[in-house]
UniProtKB/TrEMBL annotation:
Record keyword rRNA-binding present: no
Organism: Salinimicrobium gaetbulicola
Name of the molecule in the record: PA0069 family radical SAM protein
Keyword Metal-binding: yes
Pfam family, one: Radical_SAM
């Protein structure tokens, strides 16, 4: 693989060393030359799946500006390969790198279903929305085979417990039968991520995600079945998708979305290196402009960890983005509401069936 050659089907374009490990990873020129002379691939692009058996599965979210109480991630690492993904840094805590490792080494929590059921049956547990995919997508490609997310939804339905879902994969359509039953009691809300209406942009930013066409169809199908779906235009990246705010909100409103949210891209930790390398390879003509504009949204830094401003940014560009969303919501989504999820039923179903007395 030559230094400027794009690794197809992946977001990250190189391995990134784990900051917590003593050893680091380096791609040497002599190794690249050897691979070229032997006709071998320098980078193994295959995905491997690693079974894990955690002791707990429901995580309390303490960040004050995330808007979640609890999250559940049946998978760690994500084959979708979104180059901007904030979850890349968390892969270092598992002993892997946030670059290609994040996309190629997927940890599968095999006992997720058993742990969730144990949690929901606990006498001390009080119903609160649990969000699937607070970190990595619960409908990434391996879910088609393993069906862990589908089994988790069956548990939420059995115990009449509120659940939220964040995904950018049309595979969620497979589980519409369960989602529809949950929606009858206002126990589910779907957040579908759509970053752009342009398929070429999608392919560059999110190489292994569902197409834009399929995601728009997913909004329609969920809406038709009475399943509330909100769209997250996340993240907004200046000079890449920032010009699409009004047309995107118009499109999702016509498909039946009940609301829209957004974040401004921030490149914390190793993500700055992953994103910078990627954009200089894929968009060399505007790379420096984009990076400078991202920094302008975060007081001159690519990295922004300030609670209260990190998600939306500050400065002129961030203000313009906020104004565009305010106009878009007023013009296309006025009067649409997202009712709070129902917490009242679970206590009656803690043993898996309704208590009659």
């Amino acid at each position: 693989m030559k230094g400027n050659e794009i690794i197809k089907g992946r977001g990250a374009q190189h391995q990134v060393s784990n900051r917590f490990l003593e050893l680091s990873y380096e791609m040497r020129d002599d190794f690249l030359n050897y691979c070229a002379s032997e006709g071998e691939e320098a980078v193994d692009s295959r995905t491997t799946f690693i079974d894990t058996f955690p002791r707990t599965i429901v995580n309390k979210v303490t960040s004050p500006d995330v808007g979640l109480e609890f999250s559940l991630n049946p998978y760690q690492g994500c084959e979708h390969g979104c180059v901007y993904c904030y979850a890349r840094n968390s892969h270092e805590y598992w002993g892997y790198g946030p670059g290609l490792d994040f996309e190629q080494k997927i940890l599968v929590k095999r006992n997720s279903v058993e742990l969730l059921e144990k949690k929901l049956r606990s006498k001390n547990w009080q119903a609160a929305p649990i969000i699937l995919s607070g970190n990595t997508d619960c409908y990434q490609p391996i879910e088609r085979k393993l069906k862990i997310t589908r089994q988790l939804l069956q548990v939420f339905l059995k115990y009449k417990h509120p659940v939220g879902i964040i995904t950018k994969n049309a595979l969620i359509q497979r589980d519409i039968d369960i989602l529809q039953e949950l929606a009858k009691d206002n126990l589910v809300r779907v957040n579908l991520s759509i970053t752009s209406l342009d398929e070429k942009t999608r392919q560059l930013l999110e190489p292994r995600t569902a197409s834009i066409k399929k995601r728009l169809q997913t909004i329609e199908k969920l809406h038709e079945r009475g399943i509330p779906v909100n769209v997250m235009m996340a993240p907004i990246i200046p000079s890449i998708n920032s010009h699409e705010i009004l047309p995107l909100v118009k499109e999702i409103a016509e498909r039946g979305a009940c609301g829209v949210g957004y974040t401004v891209v921030r490149l914390n930790g190793a993500i700055g290196e992953v994103f910078s390398t990627w954009i200089r390879k894929t968009m060399p003509d505007r790379a420096e402009k984009v990076l400078h504009q991202i920094a302008e949204c975060h007081s001159g830094n690519l990295n922004d960890s300030r609670f209260g401003t990190r998600m939306k940014g500050d400065g002129n560009i961030a203000d313009q983005v906020a104004q565009q969303f305010a106009i878009a919501r007023k013009k296309y989504l006025s009067g649409r509401e997202r009712p709070a999820l129902n917490r009242a039923l679970h206590e009656q179903y803690k043993d898996g069936q309704m208590k009659l007395f």
